[in-house]
Structure formats: structure tokens, C-alpha cells
Amino acid sequence: MSQLFDLTGKTAVAIGGNGVLGSAMAKGLAEHGAKVAIVGRNLEKAEEVVNEIIKNGGEAKAFRADVSSEDALMHLADEIDKWTGGCDILLNAPGTNSSTPFFELGMDEYDRIMEINLKGIVLACQVFAKRMIERGRNGSIINISSVSSTTPLSRVFTYSVSKAGLNSVTQFLAREFAPHGIRVNAIIPGFFPAEQNRKILDKDRIENIMRHTPMNRFGEAEELQGATVWLASEKASSFVTGALIRVDGGFGSMTI
């Protein structure tokens, strides 16, 4: 059974792997044998994650890249090729948020959030999936969505729009890439203590979240590792593509 989740010999590229959730998922991939590229704008944070992985017996390397720049992603892909020969697993976990009210929202802020949360993932899929196809190797792309992607949450207009778009991208590319042996899925996390949502978690909002979360607690970042490793494994999830997997403590099942 353990062989189902063995990622030995695979290279995972974790974009946003220096964040709270991205780093936890990247560590899970490393613990199951994958070599992991930790990618982020902040190289110092990426190197901290790499050091933790190496300390626990894994193999990883830090890379700096701006996910909204095609040139930066092309350069990143070249560096990954030199390091391990290419990407097998692409974990798209970049993210930024804002609680700016709709009528106060400027287009500069809107564009910045959309560039990171949506455009950046589209570019990453273009760059890395194309190389997977050219090499004739199967692959897994895992996009990190949000509960706000299906039923928009208050206070996070642009974030919700970007994540709804990401779900559509995930399902479109699942169909597009299936003939090439590349699976594309998304994880929909519930409320986790990530940096981008702490600033809008006041007392009233926390109470509202708990009323809509049957498990009555926040998630721990490590609780995303199981779904990540499962979707990354060619053996364990070989017939899974175009799926939107909820890891949300039941949030998506609640109405009143």
C-alpha cells in the first residue's frame, strides 16, 4: 500500500512553496520521496523551507521567481531542467488577498491579485506542462483554490473572483492535457492560518466561520498533505483529473 504514495524519482515544483500552506504541502511531497523545488519571491523564506526538508532527510532546492512573469518562469523551468531533468509534479500555491471594499477597489490592486492568483498559474501551466508533453512524461498539476471559489465570501471580492477562475482553468486544462497523460486537479482548502487571511479574521468573522464549519475549528496546514500527496501520485490517483477536492472541515456542506 505504501508504494501507492511513493514519489521517489519525481521532481515537484512548488510555486508559493515558501508560504504557510505551500511549505506544508511541499514538505509532504518531500517526505514521500520527491525532490522539491521551493519557489517564491522571497528567496530567504524559500531557503528556510529547503533547510527543514533537508534536515528531515529530503532533497530540495530554493529558487526565486515572479509567478506573473513568463520570462521568470521560463528561466525557472530551465534551472529545474538542469537540476533534475524536469518537472513531474507542479504545485501551484501562490496567493495574495485583500479586504478592500468593492467601491474602494482600485484596478492596480485588482490587477495585482489577479496576476498572482490566476494569471501566474496559467503561465506556470503553460511553461511546465508544455515541457512535460515535449518529453512524453506523465505529470500531475495541483492548483490551490479556496472555499470562496464556489460561494464567494464577503470582504474578499477579487480573491474570490480569482479562485473561481482558477477552478475553471483547472477543469479546462484537465480536458486539454488528459491525452498527454497529465492530470490537473485543484484542492479547495477551508480556513487555515495562512498569512493572507489573518488580517481579516476578527472576532465576529471567526465566529461566523465556526458556525459554518461542522468540525468547529481551523485547519492545520499539515492536514493538506494527504490530498496533495494523493493527487501527486500517479499510482494512487491515476484516474483522477478535473477534480476539485475539498479539505475544509465540512464548510462547503453547510447552509443554515
Could you list some keywords that capture this structure?
256 residues; Rossmann fold; alpha/beta; seven-stranded parallel sheet; globular
SSE map:
Layout: E1 11-15, H1 20-31, E2 35-40, H2 43-55, E3 59-64, H3 70-84, E4 89-92, H4 107-135, E5 139-144, H5 157-177, E6 182-189, H6 195-198, H7 203-211, H8 225-232, E7 244-247
Parallel strand pairs: 1-2, 1-4, 2-3, 4-5, 5-6, 6-7
Helix pairs in contact: 1-8, 3-4, 4-5
Architecture overview:
The protein is α/β, with parallel strands linked by helices and 256 residues long. It has one domain: Rossmann fold (3-Layer(aba) Sandwich), CATH 3.40.50.720. It is 43% helix and 15% strand. It has helices at residues 20-31, 43-55, 70-84, 107-135, 157-177, 195-198, 203-211, 225-232, and strands spanning 11-15, 35-40, 59-64, 89-92, 139-144, 182-189, 244-247. Strands 3-2-1-4-5-6-7 form a seven-stranded parallel beta sheet, sandwiched between helices. Strand 4, helix 4 and strand 5 (139-144) form a beta-alpha-beta unit. The longest helix is centred in the middle third of the chain and has 29 residues, at 107-135. The protein is globular and about 50 Å long. It starts with 10 loop residues before the first strand and ends in a 9-residue tail after the last strand. The model has no long low-confidence stretch (mean pLDDT 94).
